[in-house]
Amino acid sequence: MLRFLIGFAVLCLGVTPLSAQSPDWAKSKVFPGQYFLAPTPEIPLADAGEQLPAAIAAALGDTRPDQWRLHRRSVAQNHHHFHHYQQVVRGFPVLGGSLQLQITPEATLRSVSGRFFPDTAFVLPQHLQAPQRALPRIHGSLSPYYPHIGQWNYRIQDTVWMPRGLFPGQASRHDQLAFVMDFTEPGGVQAHRILLDAATGKILDHFPLHCSLVRRLFHRTPSRVNLIWEEGQPFPGILAQEDQEALLATEETYALFWRTFGRNSYDGNGARLNIVTQAQLNNCPNAVASGNRISHCPGVVTDDIVAHEWTHNYLASMNGLVYQYESGAINEAFADIFGEVVDLLNDRGLDDMDQLPRQDCEEANVRWKIAEGTPALESHIRDLWLPECKEHPSTIDSPDFACLPLMDDFGGVHINSGLINRAFSLLTDGGSVDTLTVAGIGLTKSAHIFWHAAQHYLGPVTSFSNLADILEQSGQDLLGADLTELTLVNLPAATASDVITAADVEQLRRAVLAVGLRTPLPCDFPPALNPGRPETCAESLQGTSPVSIFREDWENGLPAGWEVSSAPENPDSWTDKSWRLTDLLPNGRAGTGILAPSPQVGNCQLDLENGLVHLSSPPIVLPAVAVEAFLEFDHYFATESGLDGGVLDIALGEGPFVPVETAHFTFNPYVSPLEGSNLNDNPLAGRAAFHGTDTNSDTGSWGTSIVDLTAAGVIPGQPFRLRWTMGHDGCNGWVGWYLDEVEIGYCDEASLPVTYRSIEAVADKDRVHLRWELDLSENNAGFFVERQGPEENEFRSLAFVPARGYAYVYLDHEVRAGATYTYRLRQRDLDGTESYSPLVAVSLPEPALRLGPNPAGDFLTVHLSDRAGPATGILYSLSGQKMMEFSLKPGETHRLSTSRFPAGIYLIKVGDRLQKVEIRR
């Protein structure tokens, strides 16, 4: 974490450090890799000139002055200038690294926003892979999207730094140098961008550069001989109706963005606008945008679709919003919004009722509907007023919100755009979402706020929560500014009578709140391993009690009979990756386990690291009564998806090791097959394996896999061995594969008494893990988990855990930080007899700073942990104004009066801790 000090740098050329001019309330925290927007007091810049980015860089802490390159300048409706800087490290731009400086006409700094990455994270690789060598891998990976990708042209556009964790599920745990390769369909309509690891040739990320209205398709581009009209020729002449509509809507879109907002064509420099109608796209009906043109299938030419597609090209040139996940949904929404603005402002098509307010999903009123009246489509495709009419979400907590992987609509870009669409229509027309009512501010003011956000603040990687901050800041920026009238006529536009007021900014805040842009995503993506587990022997025909005959938990080292071995493909360059004992288990798991590491080694050129590492058990023999035998093992994996992974093999009698098949697992089987040998040099290529990470994450989680040993061929009385094998490809790595408790047993009648081996309660962030193990169990029905809290006089029952073996875990989520809880188990026999376990207690750590209530009304309580040092507290407005100051001692609580402050968002800073506070009236 770095402290960003607005006022730390010398911005006044050779005059006075800003820290001497600005009080402490000009300070904000900035975390590397996270978007920030820091309003500043209007600090005079004097003649800072070229020293400005250097001074800002110094204010960021560990960055160098030469890291920032001026990318573009823009001017807002309030005449504020925005300077957009690209972060550059060791001569290469950083994807997502940017600074936006807002400068007033009086040459004062108004705000700084963007995202930066510490330069120490970027290390140049020793060797570079020729990008052409990766073509087979790229073709194989993209062929599910584009079957004829092998016939496409490609070009290396740039070399950039790819910060780790920039996108969900990104295939890298490190900051890596990447080649930017653009693949373009012959003719140029459709294009796709690949970010390729410059050292290894592996694909780090990929996304389309064309924007499809409904789907991503394969397109053909017409040649010059198919030109039917160009500027200066008679209009409409003999043009077909669709050709006329395409030209008219293009002119209207151009006029809206140029005459209203001041951007001359999509590139800002008056570039030619190319239009293709009667396009022969593979999956018509459809329309696409790419670079300097839009292409429409027959029957898919309406004003809002044309404006939608052109808006994609404007966004690509202005801010390069990446077309996946939240950034892609924002991209789609802004295209819908300005497509509908054009539709609402003209009088063509079915627009005879679009001036009337909407109430529900009725078909008669076409206001806020995208692609209504399109001949080739059955009906409109999206609804900005009520997205649920098309099964799209109005709010983040809507059941229609789509938690999709990258392969599916690039993370739901056409679905989750409904959030932003609803925010715009709600802000424009007013309405209610649940119990929150928004008073509409009209189309002119809404359009200016959203354009201002797109032109001056949006970056390639923008989340919903980032957008919430950006929209609210845009409203503040335009407060009281002269706005230009919305126009579709290519003539200078008049000044609008509408002026954005503080009341309008409040409605903007309410609209953002109503759709939940700052609400955490509801995407509880299932982990790679199901954390639950079925009751062992619950469906057994032999008996419901599991009888254990073999257990290993690694707590006493590697036992006799276990073997560790390696089988590298290239012994001369092999780095040892053997299974090894470790007590540093992921996710805070206690005890010792065994790990097959997957280190970041190799370069897939001279240093090839592909090979296998094995962990083999001693011979095990089932008793004659074990006719329903099982294997259970707890494990965790986080590997390069599709490339590195682990498998389980079994050797029966004196036979060789053979695969335990997916069908032999009864719970938590293999994830999927690894990439085939044409794309993967792992010796396990093509085999079903445990690989990858949890969905949309770069880590894994613990789970138990269960194997039906009888189905796998194990016979009572015959020895067998098990082997866990981790396979590596030629280079790179991730975390590896952890193995913990291994148990083999069979199902039989219950016949053992109950005794405890251990019972413990462990705090883990906002929950408690209660674990207990048994040595023996007889007639055991199960356990009631009971807890006594800090303000409770008695124990209360939380849950009943049925008997299912010897090791148990219960997760208690209903706990709070700073509190101590006592647990016990009330064990019940099959005949109803009950007994209690020993007591165990656990304390959850208290947060250093606690605020409440939040949102606040007339007062706000601030508590400083007794573990913290004395601190000064300051309450700021979002504009940076200090509202109050107070002192806190460790363990002290202050009740602050906030009744005199207007409603809004504030920042409270106590020592080096910063939190957001909302005051409501």
Topology (SSEs and partners):
Elements: E1 2-5, H1 18-21, E2 27-30, E3 36-44, H2 51-59, E4 68-75, E5 81-89, E6 92-103, E7 108-115, H3 135-142, E8 153-162, E9 176-184, E10 191-197, E11 203-208, E12 211-212, H4 241-260, E13 274-276, E14 287-290, E15 293-296, H5 303-318, H6 325-345, E16 369-370, E17 382-383, H7 409-416, H8 418-429, E18 430-433, E19 436-439, H9 443-456, H10 464-477, H11 502-515, E20 545-552, E21 563-568, E22 580-582, E23 593-597, E24 611-616, E25 629-638, E26 645-652, E27 657-659, E28 665-667, E29 672-673, E30 688-691, E31 703-708, E32 720-728, E33 736-748, E34 755-764, E35 767-776, E36 780-788, E37 796-802, E38 807-812, E39 820-829, E40 834-836, E41 840-843, E42 849-852, E43 859-864, E44 871-877, E45 882-888, E46 893-897, E47 904-910, E48 913-919
Parallel strand pairs: 13-15
Antiparallel strand pairs: 1-2, 3-7, 4-5, 5-6, 6-7, 8-9, 9-10, 10-11, 12-14, 14-15, 16-17, 18-19, 20-33, 21-24, 22-23, 23-33, 24-32, 25-31, 25-33, 26-27, 26-30, 26-32, 28-31, 29-30, 34-35, 35-38, 36-37, 36-39, 39-40, 39-41, 42-43, 43-46, 44-45, 44-47, 47-48
